[in-house]
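User: Let's play a game. I give you a shape written as tokens, and you guess the letters that built it. Ready? Here's round one.
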């Protein structure tokens, strides 16, 4: 990937550092790269460029930690107190912004104390970056937890080139309007030079909000931002759909050990004729309940034979201290228990439910084992699982069932599209996917694979960082002149 001469130094900023702390039997501390959307996406870029990464190490109330190195990354920890984790992270980020940005699927809570902590923690992040970044560095701030950082950072360090990427959807203006702090949030994001969204629609919604709440006129993808002295800056606000390291998934899918494991998985779940797979963080946006409802009805109606068909549902533990997530877990587990109680037998479990995290190898084995991947999100920024499944289907078999409300829908036309709110439509899509003739599978999967291989994560990063590099280069030319 050629990023030109524009980038002198790259600083990544995200709520969590991309590593987890592990202590071995002898008490030695080791840091391991952690799984998850963002890390999965940017790992290849970092391997190539190296970078500074500013983020929270993940344990509340711990003492301030010194920066440390892992692989090609210099990790700079930002400490959070227990109260800050509760109010900035679990509260404002996951109890206010997350539901609001996902179309109010759950009721957002608006608390002034949560907002105060959000401002305070965002300021700490901005100050940490300001203290670490070299002159003229490119800073890439990630996601909804840190929307005030671009603005704060621009005030502290006008020499930096700043990018902001939102991994989750940006809501329609009429929903965003609910947020009591809508103006400072928009102004904070507008501190960036390049603002990236997952879809065209998200970018449009943001630009409308920029006009309404920051009085910033727009021209196409540009937002004109004026400061107190009436100097105007052009900010790019457009879609940069994220993707995966397609080559790495394909390579793993070709590994004979992983292929053997895929066969083993099918045996372990009773050698069904068709194996269906859902992989999601256990989150109410992912539509797991809707999926199970449709699936349960098909079993009840005898449309699905539990001796022939198995659904594996991986539900990776997530945000377990937030009330809505505890409630969801209970609901999902009651439903799975009912389905298995009603339709299972000694040798057959219709829904194999796994509330666990797995290695990437095991994930690829699951993708290889599955005849149908089921993505039924009620709202999702992109959904990388959909792309990972496609990347692993080297032999062009398999069916992707994909929600119309996932960002991935904009690219993956040849999936079987579903509206997860339409239970009858979902049932029909399940049956269509299960019974799809091999020739149709091949035609669809070949087209899907073509899309995912062309637009991989390197392409995403090159586009995004390319835009930032161009601005950074322009700026240094002006300064040098
Ligand atoms: C956010 C946005 C957007 C899951 N369980 C395990 C595991 N995973 C990996 C998957 C995939 C990633 O985590 C999940 O990514 P998604 O895109 O599906 O969803 P979010 O976590 O909600 O991510 C989303 C994304 O950011 C990127 O911008 O697409 O819309 O919500 O890569 O494979 N990986 C391993 N073990 C697991 O148990 N190793």
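Assistant: Ready! My guess for every position:
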């Amino acid at each position: 990937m050629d990023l030109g001469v524009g980038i002198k130094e790259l600083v990544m900023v995200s709520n969590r550092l991309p590593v987890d702390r592990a202590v071995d039997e002898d008490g030695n501390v080791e840091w391991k790269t952690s799984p998850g959307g963002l890390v999965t996406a940017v790992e290849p870029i970092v391997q190539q460029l190296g970078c500074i990464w500013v983020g929270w190490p993940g344990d509340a109330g711990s003492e301030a930690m010194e920066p440390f190195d892992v692989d090609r990354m210099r990790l700079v920890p930002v400490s959070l107190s227990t109260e800050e984790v509760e109010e900035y992270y679990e509260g404002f980020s996951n109890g206010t912004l997350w539901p609001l940005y996902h179309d109010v699927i759950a009721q957002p809570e608006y608390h002034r104390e949560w907002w105060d902590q959000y401002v305070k923690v965002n300021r700490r992040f901005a100050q940490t970056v300001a203290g670490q970044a070299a002159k003229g560095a490119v800073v890439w701030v990630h996601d909804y937890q840190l929307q005030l950082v671009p603005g704060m950072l621009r005030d502290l360090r006008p020499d930096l080139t700043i990018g902001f990427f939102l991994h989750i959807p940006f809501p329609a203006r009429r929903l965003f309007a609910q947020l009591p702090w809508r103006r400072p949030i928009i102004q904070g994001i507008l501190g960036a030079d390049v603002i990236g969204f997952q879809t065209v629609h998200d970018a449009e919604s943001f630009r409308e909000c920029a006009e309404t709440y920051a009085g910033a006129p727009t021209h196409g993808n540009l937002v004109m931002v004026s400061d107190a002295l009436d100097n105007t800056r052009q900010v790019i606000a457009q879609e940069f759909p994220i993707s995966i390291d397609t080559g790495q998934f394909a390579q793993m899918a070709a590994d004979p050990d992983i292929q053997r494991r895929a066969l083993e998985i099918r045996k372990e779940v009773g050698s069904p004729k068709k194996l269906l797979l859902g992989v999601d963080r256990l989150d109410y946006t992912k539509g797991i309940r809707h999926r199970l409802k449709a699936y349960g009805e098909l079993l009840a109606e005898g449309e699905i034979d539990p001796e022939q068909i198995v659904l594996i549902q991986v539900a990776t533990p997530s945000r377990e201290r937030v009330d809505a997530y505890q409630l969801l877990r209970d609901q999902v587990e009651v439903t799975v228990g009912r389905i298995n109680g009603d339709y299972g037998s000694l040798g057959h479990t219709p829904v194999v439910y796994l509330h666990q995290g797995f290695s990437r190898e095991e994930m690829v084995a699951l993708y290889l084992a599955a005849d149908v991947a089921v993505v039924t999100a009620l709202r999702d920024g992109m959904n990388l699982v959909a792309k990972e499944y496609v990347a692993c289907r080297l032999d062009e078999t398999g069916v992707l069932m994909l929600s119309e409300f996932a960002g991935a829908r904009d690219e993956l036309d040849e999936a079987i599209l579903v509206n997860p709110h339409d239970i009858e439509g979902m049932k029909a899509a399940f049956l269509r996917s299960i019974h799809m003739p091999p020739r149709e599978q091949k035609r669809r999967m070949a087209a899907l694979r073509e899309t995912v291989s062309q637009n991989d994560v390197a392409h995403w990063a090159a586009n995004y960082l390319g835009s930032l590099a161009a601005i950074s280069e322009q700026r240094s030319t002006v300064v040098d002149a």
